[in-house]
Amino acid sequence: MKRLFQLFIVIPAFFIYDYSQSQSKNQSEAIDILSLVIIRESYLGFSRMGSAQMPNGDIFLCGGSASNFLNVDLACFSYDEGKRKSNLSVPRSGSFSMTAIDDRLIYIAGGDKADYNTMSTTEIYDTKENKSSIFVPMVEERSRHTATLLKNNEVFLAGGNIGVRERISDSWQVVNTQSGINLQKGTLNYARYRHKAQLLSNGDVLRIGGENFSDTIEDLELFNARLRTISSNGKLKESRSYHSIVYFDDNNIFIIGGINRDKNKDRYLRSIERFDKSRNESEIVANFEEPRAHVNAKKITNSEILICGGVNGNISPKKHFSDCLLFNIETKRFSHFTNLTKPRIYSTVDLTSDGQFLLCGGNSLDSLYNDCETVDLKTRTATIRFPRLF
Predict the structure, then answer these.
(1) Domain range annotation of the chain
(2) Distance in angstroms (rounded) separating the CA atoms of residues 228 and 276
(3) Kind and range of the H or E element at 23?
(4) DSSP string covering 233-273
(5) Strands (E), 257-380
(6) Tens-digit pLDDT profile for residues 244-255
(7) Model-level pTM greater than 0.85?
């Protein structure tokens, strides 16, 4: 077999996508991406990166796994007009969390090491000082957990997996990102990972979906941010992980696609559910023509969700999707919006302040991607924005 890898250098760093600056310049030259990895006779890409959007609209992309052949952790880059500004303190991949505290600070927690073991390490990236510093560790290791910004610069961390399939965390904690004090910790009703968390209008946090190692979880949990308590809060019609959620208000939370797992048997789902907090009930409101998990979804108007990509694993080989569908929450109908330049799962998904649906990295059946693309919500066109992230 032909030797694939001859030279591999990993350089930890950060990069920023500042779309407001790109509008004042030639858009295709907005960011001059530096090389992350030097390699011959192969191609690499980013999968499972993290992203955080600052209140001022800047979008930071960080970390992830690289290569079709080796799961190599990459640290992060920060770019301002094409200049490297800082390195992360710790390389990390898998589902670590990135939480924008304000226009200046990002709190980064957990994730996987190169050997797939998890970490408790956290750090604060200061975008003004261009410096990332090791912060107070979490009370235990976490990856594929959730992190939700509360009031007073506090972050609620919950669940996740520990080690290489060692166990699922049933713990939660609240950390103050200014003082570094772990304020409270407690026990969840259900140990779960690959779940989603949604901040509600009163400051509470709703935990939706997820799984243990053999089954997905239908029960929703509510974290009362004032009392620091956990309680049950309704059930999904179909338990799921690898799903997406889109929030309109407390009574219109949409849970999209995913995988139902029963005793290690997977079934990819067609359904979209709507959770109503006033009734603590969920109902199925629509079904895709084909099952989909790992979709990229964002609210784009007061009544519409844009859903792009995904994969159907109920068939062999798996079918990866490149289409984007518009879902109207009032009519409960789908319409074709456009097509991505390529199928994507495990990419980042963000909505820029000027109306661009931004996807970076990810992979399809046999390729990892080292580019970003945008879907223009006005022209309904998809364009490769940065053809090489490294």
Answers:
(1) 294-390
(2) 22
(3) helix 19-23
(4) EEE-SS--BS-EEEEEETTEEEEE--EEEETTEEEE--EEE
(5) 259-262, 265-268, 271-276, 281-287, 296-299, 304-308, 311-312, 319-320, 323-328, 333-339, 348-351, 356-360, 372-376
(6) 999 999 999 999
(7) yes
